[in-house]
C-alpha cells in the first residue's frame, strides 16, 4: 500500500484545532456551557491537554474560536444552498424549511448556551461581538441575493428575513419547555404564508412555489430536548 | 402612634418567601443562573440561610417557585392591560409595545438564564414544564380575548400572537450580541404592520389604531447588555 504522505506541522496543527472546534460545539450542544471543561474537549477530540493549551489560552478562547469556525461553516452552507436553487430562485417555503432545520437542528441550541455567559462576562462578550458581526454581515449579503433574485424591495426583504431568524430563535428557545411539534408547525406555516405574500407582491403570484404536496408529512424537525 | 399589628406566622412566612422569590429573579437577571447561589438569595432578601432552607429545598426549588410566582404576576399584568384598554379594544401597536417592554425589560433575559439548565437537568425541566404550561394556558386565554374583541379568526389570531412572542424571544436573545436599537425597531415596525393587516382584514381598517404620532420617539426599549 502507498504510504500516507507525512503531514507537515501546520497540517497537524490545523487538524488538532479543527478536532477541538468540533468537539467544543458538540459538547456545548450535549452538555452545555456550564458543564463543559477544556479537559472534556481534549478527551472528546482525542488530543492531549498540552496540545489544547498550546492552541487555546482558555475555555473562553476555545469557545469563541469554535463558534467562529462553526458560523463560518454555516455561512458557507447557506451560500451553497442559495446558489444551488434550481434555476435562479428558492421559494420562501424552501428557505423557511432549510433555515428551521439549521436552527432547530443544533445551531441555536449552541447559541443559547453561550448567550447567558456573554451577558455576564464582558471580556467574553467583547470577543464574541466581532464573530457574530461577521455572521450577520454574511447573512445580510445572502438576504440581498434573495431580494435580488426575487425582485423584492431590498429594505423590506432584509427586515423580513432578519425577522425570520428571530422568530426561529424564539421558537427554538420555547421548544426547550414546550415540546409540541404541531404548535411550531403551525407557526412555520403562518410564516411561510407571510413570506409568500411578500414574494408575491413583487412577482406574478404564479411564480412563487407554494407548499409542497407532502404538506405536514414534511413537517420540520422539532427539537427533542433530550437529544438535540 | 398606633402599634403595627403583630403579624401571624403565616404572614411572616409569606413575606419571607416573597422576598426570596423577588431576590431570585433579580439575581438571575443581574448575575445569571450559573453565578447565583442560595446564599446570595438569602443575603439579597435579608433573610437567614435557615429561613431559606426552611422554605426551599434547593437552588432548583427556589428558582422553579420564583419563576412560577413571576409568571403569575406577568399573567395578571397582561390581563389588567387588556381589560384596561380604552373602550373594549387594544390596537396591535399598543399590544406590541407592551409585550416588547415586558420581554426586553427583563422577562426573557431571566428565561434565557434557566433554559440551558432546563435542557441539561431533567428533574429541573420536569418541574418547570407545568409552570410554563400554566403560563401558556393563560396566554391562550388572553389571545382568545384579543381575537374576540377584534372579531379575528381565533385560530389565526392564536398562531399570530404566539408568533409575536416567539419573534420577541428571538429578538431579545439576539440583542445580547447585537446591541443595535434601530435594527430591532425596524423589526417591531414590520411586525406591527403585519398585525395591523391581520386586524384590518376582520374589521373596518379605519377602526384599527395606527402608529402613534410620536413614532420613533416612542421607540421600544432596547435592552442594554450591561444593565438589563
TrEMBL record, chains A, B:
GO terms for molecular function: DNA-binding transcription factor activity; transcription cis-regulatory region binding. It comes from the Bacteria. Residues 14-74 form the HTH tetR-type domain. Residues 209-228 are annotated as: Disordered. Signal peptide: none annotated. Residues 37-56 bind DNA. Keywords: DNA-binding, Transcription, Transcription regulation. This is TetR/AcrR family transcriptional regulator. It comes from Lichenibacterium ramalinae.
